[in-house]
Amino acid sequence: MLFFCFINLLILEQTTIGVIEAIFGLLNLYFFHSAHREKSKKWHNYLLITSVTVTIFYIFYSADLRAGSVYWLIILPPLYCLLAGPKLGLVYTILLSLPAISFLFIKSDIESYIPHRSVLNFSLAYFLSFAICYLYETQYTKSNQMLHRMAFEDPLTGTKNRHALKLFFDDFNQKAMDPFQEKYEPEVTRLLMIDIDHFKSVNDEFGHEVGDSVLVEMAELLQSYTDNHHVYRIGGEEFLIIQHGTSTQAYEFAESIRKRIEKNVFRTHQNNIKITVSIGIAELKRGQTFREFLRVADKNLYSAKNKGRNLVHYSSISLTEAV
């Protein structure tokens, strides 16, 4: 937009248009800088839409139609679709088409221009540009969601996987080390490592298909206790739950899960299966690496198994002890 500002001011001597483009061009440059630094706000998109729309409509209204100013209106539908989303973009496209078509019909009433044909051709091109962008954007969104599920969701149970947990750790530590973050004592985050006791015997006795069904039902049971976004499957029969609160709350929460699973009957493939779980609780500390945490969590989990299984174990273990 700044490029066209110089053309209008220095070459075409269109002062008003040049000033408008300069103002909005500098504003859009700020939006681009914010987006580049990943500090973009939602209102930036709407103000960008407004600035481009106002500039293009003013040029179209004030300039001679033979100069080709009408062509700039064609870029508005794709812009609305990309910045406001397909649904809201369609609303903007329809609303802005009314004054655009009206202006075009009025301004086309000159020699060598036929109003009805010009309006028809413009309308087809205007809405076709939105349709193409809409199809591309919806397909891109579907593909992106599918790739996200493939990368961060367990295909069997639908819970998050180990890669998603690693991202959670990275985000957790990044926020902790942010020097501009407000200094306050955050709520303690603890993670419950849940392992199905003697799960191999389930596979050996009933088959892997039944074992998979048990894992799916286990995931559904755990998700019923907490937010689906806080349940991870990190191994064959190992699950992990993120829990916020005090140590007492974490222990009581883990105990309620253990007792619920112990009482539950997993009915699958005409089989009634009873299973138990061992749960180890570990506190997530700021600056702790992913591998360091897993060592501590595994230490607590295997302590529960060594004490007889079907119980919850939670104790403060240093990284040196966990190695």
Automatic annotation (TrEMBL):
One of its GO terms (molecular function) is diguanylate cyclase activity. InterPro entries: Diguanylate_Cyclase, GGDEF_dom, MASE6, Nucleotide_cyclase, Rev_trsase/Diguanyl_cyclase. The keyword Kinase does not apply. It holds the Pfam family MASE6. It catalyses: 2 GTP = 3',3'-c-di-GMP + 2 diphosphate. One of its GO terms (biological process) is cell adhesion involved in single-species biofilm formation. This is diguanylate cyclase. Its cofactor is Mg(2+). Keywords: Membrane, Transmembrane, Transmembrane helix. The chain crosses the membrane at residues 6-31, 43-61, 90-106, 118-136. It comes from the Bacteria. One of its GO terms (cellular component) is plasma membrane. Its EC number is 2.7.7.65. The keyword NADP does not apply. Residues 187-317 form the GGDEF domain. It comes from Marinomonas primoryensis. It is an enzyme of class 2 (transferase).
